[in-house]
Amino acid sequence: MVRLARCLRLLTVGTFAATLFFLQTPSATGAEAKRILFLHSFGRDFDPWSAHSRRLKEELSEQSPWPLDIQEHELVSARGGDSDPEAKFVNYLKSVYAQAPPDLIVTLGAPAALFVQRQRQHFLSTVPALLAAVDRRFVQQVNLSENEVAVASVIDLPATFRNIQQLLPETRKVFGLLGASPLERTWLTAARKELAFLDGKIDVVWLNDLSFEDMVRTVANAPPDSAVFWGPVRVDSAGVSHPGSAALARLSAASSAPIFSYHDAFFNGHTVGGPMISVSVVERRTAEVAVRILNGEKPGNIRVEPIADPVPRYDWRQLRRWGIDESRLPPGSEVLFREPGIWTRYRTSLLLISAALLLQSLLIGALIYQIRKRVLAEGQSRQRMAELAHMSRHAVAGELTASISHELNQPLGAILINAEAMELLLNEQPPDLDEIKQIAGDIKRDEERASEVLRRLRSLLKKSLFEPKPLDLDRLVHDSVVFLDPLMRLRGVALTASTSDVALQIEGDPIQLQQVIINLVLNAADAVAASSPERRRIVIGLARVANAAELRVSDTGPGIPSDKLKEIFEPFVTTKPDGMGMGLSIVRTIVEAHHGKISAANQRDGGALFLVQLPLLPVAASADRLPEAA
Q1: Is 512 in contact with 466 (CB distance < 8 Å)?
Q2: For 372-388, b where at least 16 C-beta lie within 10 A, e where not — what string?
């Protein structure tokens, strides 16, 4: 048991030692974490350095083969230029990094870079320093030690103002917005020298002696031929700090003139654009230099040319806001932030809608084509039907020849007799004028009777197109009965017609509808021809059924054979030995052309019954009495 306890103690101690060993050993990749000190000039949120800081961290994360431990500090004293707190700040940094100094110091902005140079002998003198986000003027004005390297940018103020002249050639005044901090006052002195070439062309009015509130009011009342240059304002004359982009956003909302700047950190929907420092380009190069230093390369051996972005960039939204024509932009410029058009935003939806519209158009086109073909076919069918009906009327006229001759002979004979009697009366001395007047009246009535017979015959034989018009069905049946009465009397058939209790006003072609009545009556007359004289009866009835006028033609013949009842209206179907089978087919075609229906049935007491239903005219359309049928 004692040996077992001793073994367990040895195993426990060994396990603990191994754990400590692995905790203190670099990761399996062999990469040790690198510590980097970021020193901000004004604060972490001051643009454009905050933009450089964010982008540099991203680039270091992508390019560094080691884990990174980045610690950040702020040189607050740079805002007011008071150097008294620097000693305390140095002591603070010395105490923080006494045991574990960083592998690299990265300064952001000229104030932080100058601070490190001034205090190198007091703290972290052996730690390499990378001076980032600084203007090339700073590098030209300071002496870099072997343990320092600068990645400088080219702030080309003349190019920025020439860009304003090119885009807005009518510009006569530019309001320059800079703050009142030591850095900004130094920058203003350099700017005035570099922009001396604008004297007499553009009046540059610097607003650094104003509070930011007064700057906003001044820019809000800027004249039409002016522009604004954003420096930016980090600390105004009232001592108020303006970090971030809030100040620029407020200025942009109030400004009555377009705003320009030298840095794309301010290219965020508030400035027009032009030649600008590119944060991405600068910090990609800065990260490359930092990795080289962390890898053991001496900063003094690294040479970095000042970085300038040769491609001018513009904000499409600002170009539209200020009415700047894109044709004025320098060749090779990039226009960003274009609002996508309807086609770009809704491409899929528009393609689907277009396909649906195309398909719908094709279907509508096919439907119109089919309708047109159908209309043409119906027109041709009506024409053929009219021709057949006309031929049928000629056949009926031939059949009515004897009765028509009889109808004409009576009035013509009476006219002749009356004319002879009048001649005799005129030879008397004195002539009987009253008698002559009566004879003249008789002659006039007989002439009208003969004319009416001829008019009906001409109407029956007339060849015309389908011409629907308002009709009184009662009157149409009456005229048809009068026309058929002589023939029915010759055949010994009793033809009677009953009128309706209400007006039956329809729309149709009077000639074709009269032919329907004549064909049905003649078919009925043929059916009763073999019956005894007292059973030769045909009855025409009229009634209103719902919204239709119903015409009934019944006879006392043998009826329709049951095997032909369903197909009696088909072409070439007939019950007559010498019939062609076209009469009832023509009747059905005429009725259907009038949007009506026709049917046939056998009566219980014998004989056939034909029912024709035609739609009635609406009450408003038939309020007045309709013209009589032809």
Answers
A1: yes
A2: eeeeeeeeeebeebbeb
Q: Is the dihedral of CA 247, 249, 250, 255 positive or negative?
A: positive
- What is the DSSP pairing of strand 129-135 with strand 104-108? parallel
Which strands, in side-by-side order, build the sheet including 173-177?
203-206, 173-177, 226-230, 259-260
- CB 414, CB 446: distance < 8 Å: yes
Edge-to-edge strands, sheet with 68-74? 68-74, 34-40, 104-108, 129-135, 148-153
Strands (E) located in 498-595: 505-508, 537-545, 548-555
Residue 20's Cβ-count burial label (10 Å; 0-12, 13-18, 19+) is exposed
Tens-place pLDDT, residues 322-334? 999 999 999 999 9
User: Taking residues 332-358, what's their average pLDDT?
Assistant: 85
pTM for this entry: 0.56
Domains (range + CATH), the chain: 32-154+277-308 (3.40.50.2300), 157-276 (3.40.50.2300), 466-630 (3.30.565.10)
Give residues with Cβ within 8 angstroms of 29, minimum separation 6. none
Please give the Cα distance from 104 to 64 (Å, whole number): 13
Q: How far is 414 from 287, CA to CA, in rounded Å?
A: 132
Q: Compute how many other C-beta atoms are within 10 angstroms of the C-beta atom of residue 248.
A: 24
Q: What pLDDT was estimated at residue 569?
A: 84
Q: Please, what sign has the CA dihedral across residues 26, 30, 33, 34?
A: positive
